[in-house]
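User: I want to check something. If I give you two sequences, will you return the structure for each one separately, not as a complex?

Assistant: Yes, each is folded on its own. Here is the first sequence with its structure:
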Amino acid sequence: MKTKLYSLMLACATLPLFSQVGINTATPSATLDVNGTLKVRDTPAATSLPGYQVLAINQGSTQVYTVDPALLIAASGTNTTNTTVYSAKKSTGISLLSVGVLGDFKPVNFLASERTIGSAALFNDTTSAYTIPSDGIYAVSYSFRFGTGLQASLLSSGTGIGITRTRGAGAGVTTLIDSRLFSGVNLVVANLTISDSHINALYSFQAGDRVNFGFIDPGISLTLLSTSTTSFSIYKISN
């Protein structure tokens, strides 16, 4: 009798076991099916990602999967195209919009067709404004260089470049968010004054804000703009 029992036990031991274990469930659907919370007392910290997988839960089946960290980076949009990027440059036909949107500030007549990169849908030709597509922090660069003809007297009159933000539907509320005065260099040989100014900074914007690039001066002569160049760039860097 003992021999038969030992033989039965040995036979059972050699059979593969395919049973499923359930905790707080009578109908387990995986090798280990836990219907409840899970607590892990000790979780060593990895010093680098290579060689590791991340555990993730399928929200539909609640099953746990291993995920390559590179897939998470791709899903976050880190490696995708930044659709907020926009830049434009004018070297001919520079003028100022006749309507001053804020005191002595008048926008430069940038056009969507003058963009060097970016989507034309981000720019409004009528208002010469870039429209912020989503809330966040944006890097903005704006420069203006007078080729020839600007007199030294204008350099001391508060003439400069500025960036405005218009927020709200319709006319909205316009705010001067940054400005720089011109600094001139007299070229004695040519008897000319060449002047340029630059703005490079970070700003917080809301979706729908309109950003304009222009001048701050009550009486600048438009004839001084004929030999000038100006450009700007803007793109979102953070939420």
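And separately, the second sequence with its own structure:
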Amino acid sequence: MDENLKTIGATMATAETRMRSGRHAAERLWPTGFGDLDPLIGGGLRSGGLTLLAGPHGLGKTTFAVQVCRNVVRTGRPVIYFSYEHEAEDLFQKLLAMEAGELDTSSRARLTEIRDAFEGDQVSPLEERLRVVPGAVQALANVRSYAELMYVHRSTGSRTDLAAIRRQIEVVREETGVMPLVVVDYLQKVLVPDGPAEEAERTTTIVEGLKDLAIDIAAPVLTIVAAEKEALQSGTRMRMRHLRGSSALAYEADVVLVLNNKVDIVARHHLMYDLGNTERFREWAILGIEKNRFGRDGIELEYKKRFDQGRFESEGRAVSEQLIDDRVFLD
């Protein structure tokens, strides 16, 4: 019999075995570590689930994804990050900055200082170079404690297709004994060998393949998604309809998260009658839950940006201000 064909009776028996062995639902959940988000999406990223993350350029999509990875590996679970745009050392520096930023109550730890420590021409070990950055030495120790669980694959649009992604996931599973959380940064760069010329068709192939992958490996897949050019214009609120390439993105995904700058999408009266709001709102990103098969959608949370430290503050809150879809500017 085909292994993909089974009766509900067989499924019941498998579920019963899992429950009797003590393997409960928590094993199927991978908390993101972002306050307020996990309860809304059913406890975290879900095994077999595909989550899309979109947002304007420079608003921290990679930062958010790396922070989720850091939070997962700190629980003892492996992660594999398919990076089509960033070198592994860049991600290592982000991790150091995140850890140092959380440790440094003076707020003087900076990602730029971390990078300077890597690029200096002095001949000395990394720990010695990092002593000038508040909290960085302890941050290095923290990263070392989970470093062997976070795998980074330097992916390219000319070589790394879905088959290559599957092979690397299997390598991690064999090394760790556990299926990893899979992160793809980003979806539209995944190679489709001999694929169609139309981007929409290629995107359909990729997103369907990633959804099948999530189900097959029984682990979550989180992928960053590019947006249409129209959504990148100032004053436009990015929504699920702006995802670039195919309606299949919204159809196949279990959860769709969209980041926006708060200052760009609050109703105009919040800016007109309190000029100080403009600067305050610039410090916050709004994470919209555009689709959610495991709970409510249409919910907006806000997280404070600490991009100087390569992170978001992990405790969020519901947005209290009125938001708009598209800002209308009047002369």
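Because they were folded independently, the notes below concern the second chain alone. Confidence is low (pLDDT under 50) at residues 327-331. The CA atoms of residues 9 and 185 lie 39 Å apart.
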